[in-house]
């Protein structure tokens, strides 16, 4: 399964863990249920903006939404096995997101203003 499919499977796990339907997640995130279903099946890739909407709906910081579980040694965890290269890409993306997206809820305004000064 590619990274799009793994991300969709991860979102499905988070959604089901909350006892939500695809329609409920879609409504909370401002998306269509059709798109949520396609994304969970790996048929559609979510943009960074869409990922942020889903993270907000799931009440998670974006970097936590992107923390896909790693396969446990000796077992196959469907939807979460990453190659070493993919894992490195995810780690790099998470590091970047943690630097530019604050967890204090100000939408990154302080960081953007600091870069402009």
Notes on the structure:
The protein is mainly alpha-helical and 117 residues long. It has a single domain (3-116), classed as Orthogonal Bundle (434 Repressor (Amino-terminal Domain)), CATH 1.10.260.40. It is built from 7 helices and no strands. The chain has helices at 3-17, 22-29, 33-40, 48-57, 62-65, 84-100, 109-116. α2 crosses α3 (33-40) and α2 crosses α4 (48-57). It is globular, with a radius of gyration of 15 Å. The chain starts with a helix and ends with a helix.
Individual helix count: 7
Number of strands: 0
The SSE order reads HHHHHHH
Main beta sheet = none
Sum this structure up briefly.
The chain is mainly α and 117 residues long. Helix content is 60%, strand content 0%.
């Amino acid at each position: 399964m590619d990274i799009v499919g793994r991300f969709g499977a991860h979102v499905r796990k988070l959604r089901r863990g909350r006892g939500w339907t695809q329609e409920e997640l879609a409504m909370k995130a401002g998306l269509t249920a059709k798109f949520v279903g396609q994304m969970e099946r790996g048929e559609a890739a979510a943009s960074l903006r869409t990922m942020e909407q889903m993270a907000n709906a799931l009440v998670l910081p974006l970097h936590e939404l992107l923390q896909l579980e790693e396969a446990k040694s000796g077992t196959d965890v469907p939807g979460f096995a990453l190659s070493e290269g993919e894992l490195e890409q995810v780690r790099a993306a998470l590091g970047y997101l943690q630097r530019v997206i604050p967890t204090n809820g100000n939408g990154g305004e302080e960081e953007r203003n600091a870069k402009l000064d």
